[in-house]
Amino acid sequence: MKHSKIIYVADDDEDDRLFISDAIRDLNPEIKIIEVADGMDLLNLIQSESISDSSILVILDMNMPKVTGLEALEAIRANDLIKHIPTVMISTSSDSELIQRAYQAGINAFIKKPNTMDGFIKIAEALQTCFFDHQRF
Description:
Protein name: Response regulator
Strand order of the largest sheet: 2-1-3-4-5
Domain Response regulatory: 6-128
CATH class: Alpha Beta
Pfam family, one: Response_reg
Largest sheet: 5 strands, parallel
Low-confidence stretches: none
Keywords: Phosphoprotein
CATH topology: Rossmann fold
Strand content: 15-25%
Shape: globular
Number of strands: 5
């Protein structure tokens, strides 16, 4: 089955990747979800994706090993082929300076990482409203 919508979930916390992915799948099973554990894997995969065939959304954890969410975001925004991809940053951190840096680097939204499944479901619903319900995505 060809997926017209793809979400990359980049988070070094396996449980958080599972929770957000499950919440999105429950809401919209037609979306293909690709999980990666760090920003380097995300960049390698997203740069090889045929982006003209699909609508893509990236969900980035701010704090990851190898390549952080902020570094991955900066690399995405610096690449003309993928800089248009909507990117949402999630984090357990509420450091206003880091959040401000992420917005300056070009994120579309910042979401504080929840600690309940209900919180992840609410994120999936918000993503559905903000990104999935529009033709652009």
